[in-house]
Amino acid sequence: MINFLILIEDQAGRAQFVRLYDMYNKMVFFTAFQIIGSHAIAEEAAQEVWIGTARHIGRVSGLPDEEAKAYLITAAKNAALNALEKEKKYAAWEEESFDAVKNRSELYELKNGGGSLEYEYLVNIVMNLPVKYSRTLELKFVLEWKNKEIAEYLGISQSTVASRISGGRKLIIEKLREEGYYEG
Prior knowledge:
elongated, single chain, mainly alpha
């Protein structure tokens, strides 16, 4: 809870937040859990609710208890539905991207004395990159999403997406150089 209190500047707001948190924390989690069915994801959804509540404590603190409770239930439902949608979208993306990789038989050539690498080898390199790079590169080059779509999905800025794509490319080239498949 202390992480949420950092977001609140005044002592009265903090006291109100603590009171709401103590009264409704279990209810917020349970509401999210009923929708999601996953303990970990429900916890994340509940955290989103409390972060939003902390950021807008001025609006929430003025509500009577029953209205604050209704607000928190609605926020928990919305956070759970958003988390569930994100999980479904990620699961579909993951399945689609890996199926696409498995079903490709074409070869991609990298100039190095006429040598070539299979697509699966390149995918293996990408999959062994840090997750922030591999996830971004898969969305960009396997699913062919636009940077704006990737940014919205991952909850980052478009400039961060561009940086991750550039950084991921550099790491791939570095790996290929190490293994003697790329000169340049």
